[in-house]
TrEMBL record:
It comes from Flavobacterium anhuiense. PANTHER family: SENSOR HISTIDINE KINASE YPDA (PTHR34220:SF7). Keywords: Kinase, Membrane, Transferase, Transmembrane, Transmembrane helix. This is Histidine kinase. Pfam families: His_kinase (PF06580). The keyword Nucleus does not apply. GO terms for molecular function: kinase activity. The chain crosses the membrane at residues 9-28, 40-58, 79-98, 110-131. It comes from the Bacteria. InterPro entries: Bact_2-comp_sensor_kinase, Sig_transdc_His_kin_internal. Residues 153-231 form the Signal transduction histidine kinase internal region domain.
């Protein structure tokens, strides 16, 4: 699991802002004729030390470091505590500088206290805005991670949709073939074995080469032909130049299963499906001959589309008119580079 990025404030921001505040605090002294270089140093030193303390105190009082829940209100008891500590610290710094530099006359203590409160408020609000932005970003990252996990789970279920129904129908077909002593029973068993071997090999992969997907499809179509005979027709016109591209495994099987689910498949009314490439898309096209009472929820196609968006950042396209239904699948040509 990816480790959560820790909230940090750049040292450049902390020291840069503290030095800038120290310089700004000394500017009025430059226009005071009675000021000495010592006054400038004292003002700058007090402001710099005070600003650094306020920065680090507020940083380490954040929920990230204290293990407490974040308060939704910007103004709370932590701000009050920070102001009180700031006032005490400012008094200590002023007295310490008076003793250290042996200064007999300094600015009124109230001026330092007001300056300290102002710095405290500025740092506190700026830091908490940074922290709230950090939390928002982390929530976005966690949401994306959760979405990716959810999509993965959905797709696992989607891939498994083929197996129970298809296995049940295939075993029924095999039983019928055995009952009539069909000589192709052995070939049917081998193809069924091949298909489920492919299933086991590919189920943990996000993308596989189109050539492998078509190989799986061959076994799948053989089993369907044994079940529907001439009531099911697949025309594979895929350009071999696209074989090196990649798609999520079992996409074609799911789309064909979707066609069979919603359309009439019979000797009197064969279901014809065309498979071909168009630009950078793989197209699955079938003639619409809906079953009576068939209602499509679109859940299967939507799940496939979300998987494509997650893995290759492209969407499938659906073209539909009164007679034809097309699903255009985007192909990934960066598969080998990744």
């Amino acid at each position: 699991m990816e480790k959560q990025k820790r909230f940090q404030v750049s040292l450049k921001v902390i020291w840069g802002s503290s030095i800038a505040l120290a310089v700004m605090a000394s500017i009025p002294k430059l226009f005071d004729a009675d000021s000495t270089p010592g006054d400038l140093i004292i003002n700058s030193s007090i402001t710099l030390l005070f600003s650094l303390f306020i920065w680090y105190y507020n940083i380490y009082s954040l929920p990230k470091f204290s293990a407490n829940h974040a308060n939704k209100s910007l103004f709370n008891w932590k701000l009050l505590l920070s102001v009180i500590l700031g006032i005490v610290l400012m008094v200590i710094l002023v007295i310490a500088h008076q003793e250290l530099f042996q200064v007999s006359k300094m600015d009124a203590p109230i001026m330092f206290e007001l300056r300290g409160v102002l710095i405290n408020l500025i740092v506190y609000m700026f830091l908490h805005l940074l922290f709230q932005n950090y939390q928002t970003q982390q929530m976005g990252v966690e949401l994306e991670r959760t979405k990716a996990v959810n999509l993965g789970a959905q797709y696992e279920l989607l891939k498994q949709q083929v197996n129970p129904h298809f296995l049940f129908n295939s075993l029924n077909t095999l039983k019928s073939m055995v009952d009539i002593q069909d000589p192709q029973s052995s070939d049917f068993i081998l193809k069924l074995s091949d298909f489920y071997r492919f299933t086991l090999e590919s189920r943990k992969m996000d993308l596989i080469p189109l050539s492998e997907e078509l190989q799986i499809l061959d076994s799948y179509v053989y089993l369907l032909k044994a079940r529907f005979e001439d009531g099911f027709v697949l025309e594979n016109q895929v350009n071999p130049k696209q074989y090196d591209s990649a798609i999520p495994p079992f996409t074609l099987q799911l789309l064909i299963e979707n066609c069979i689910k919603h359309n009439v498949v019979s000797l009197d009314k064969p279901l014809k499906i065309k498979l071909y490439t168009e630009n950078e898309f793989l197209v699955v096209e079938n003639k619409i001959q809906l079953k009576r009472g068939a209602v499509s929820t679109g859940v299967g196609l939507d799940n496939i589309n979300q998987r494509f968006m997650h893995l290759i950042h492209k969407e499938i396209e659906i073209d539909k008119d009164e007679t034809t239904f097309k699903v255009k699948i985007p192909l990934d040509y960066d598969y080998h580079n990744n």
